[in-house]
Write a sequence for this structure.
């Protein structure tokens, strides 16, 4: 019986044009809707339409949302999306361990996106059991932004 999955390189899946288009190493930055995380709602223009975020702002919003979204909780997201920061809550770890884990988890979360080049320069501010942290993110287009979030 013939093999359904040939072992030879002579067989090409799909059109040759399609394979060359997907071989491109160019990272595509898209646009999105502008969202205000403090208000918990979309930003509206004076005419009442939802404002559009440019490519850089859309990437920064993705990073912010990925940090805030608990990983593995919502089936609509892939298993690669979201952070595990809420697992640190109530564990009783010391500040040094918490800071190390926050650094690791946030870096892993944000580097899953091909638009993110690096995550560094973490700073931490503690008020009782609440940790407010900031980090610098850099895109593959060399845009930088400071993100701020918290673990309570």
């Amino acid at each position: 019986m013939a093999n359904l999955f040939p072992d030879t390189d002579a067989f090409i899946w799909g059109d040759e044009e399609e394979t060359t288009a997907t071989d491109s190493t160019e990272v595509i930055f898209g646009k999105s809707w502008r969202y205000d995380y403090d208000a918990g709602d979309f930003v509206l223009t004076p005419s009442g339409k939802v404002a559009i975020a440019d490519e850089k702002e859309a990437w920064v919003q993705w990073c912010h949302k990925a940090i805030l979204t608990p990983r593995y909780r919502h089936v609509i997201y892939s298993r690669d999306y979201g952070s595990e920061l809420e697992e640190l809550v109530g564990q009783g770890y010391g500040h040094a361990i918490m800071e190390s884990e926050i650094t690791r988890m946030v870096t892993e979360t944000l580097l899953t996106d091909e638009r993110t080049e690096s995550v560094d320069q973490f700073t931490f501010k503690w008020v009782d059991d609440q940790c407010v942290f900031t980090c610098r993110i850099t895109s593959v287009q060399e845009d930088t932004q400071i993100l701020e979030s918290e673990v309570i």
Observations:
- The longest helix spans residues 95-110.
